[in-house]
Specification:
The structure is a single chain. The chain has 112 residues and is mainly β. The chain is built from 2 helices and 8 strands; from the N terminus they run ββββββββαα. It folds into 2 domains: 52 residues, no CATH class; 43 residues, no CATH class. It has a 3-stranded antiparallel beta sheet with strand order 2-3-4, with no helix packed on it. A 3-stranded antiparallel beta sheet has the order 6-7-8. A two-stranded parallel sheet has the order 1-5. A hairpin with a 5-residue loop joins β7 and β8. The protein is rod-shaped. It starts with 11 loop residues before the first strand and ends with a helix.
C-alpha cells in the first residue's frame, strides 16, 4: 500500500473501527485486532478512513446489497402507504396499523 496516496482499491477491510498507537521512530501503527499497518507519524484518527474500510462481521459487501422492492398502496381512508419487500422476506409498511402491530392488511393483501 502506498501510504502517501492510498485509494479505494488499496484500503484494508477491518471489522471494527481502527485505532492508533503513539508515534515512534517516525511512524505509528494503525489497525484493528490482527490487522495493523504502519502509517505516517502525523496521521490523525480522522485520516484512517484513507487506509481502512470498516465492515462489521456478517455485513454483506456494499455491492451485494439489494434495494427492497417498493410498492405504493392505497389506504382505506384515502391515504397512500409504502410497502417494502426485502430480499430476505422481511416486509414493512408505513401505515399506522403496521406501526402498532408490526403487521397490517396491506401486507396480508400482497401475500395473498
Amino acid at each position: 500500500m502506498n501510504l502517501d496516496n492510498p485509494n479505494q482499491e488499496t484500503r484494508l477491510v477491518v471489522s471494527c473501527p481502527p485505532v492508533m498507537h503513539p508515534p515512534r521512530d517516525g511512524f505509528r501503527l494503525a489497525g484493528c485486532y490482527g490487522t495493523w499497518i504502519s502509517v505516517p507519524a502525523h496521521t490523525k484518527i480522522e485520516d484512517l478512513s484513507r487506509y481502512f474500510i470498516v465492515r462489521p462481521f456478517g455485513a454483506p459487501p456494499p455491492e451485494s446489497r439489494v434495494e427492497p422492492k417498493t410498492l405504493t398502496v392505497a389506504g382505506s381512508r384515502g391515504g397512500t402507504y409504502t410497502v417494502r419487500l426485502r430480499e430476505n422476506g422481511q416486509t414493512t409498511c408505513t401505515c399506522p396499523g403496521f406501526g402498532y402491530r408490526r403487521t397490517c392488511k396491506h401486507l396480508t393483501l400482497l401475500s395473498a
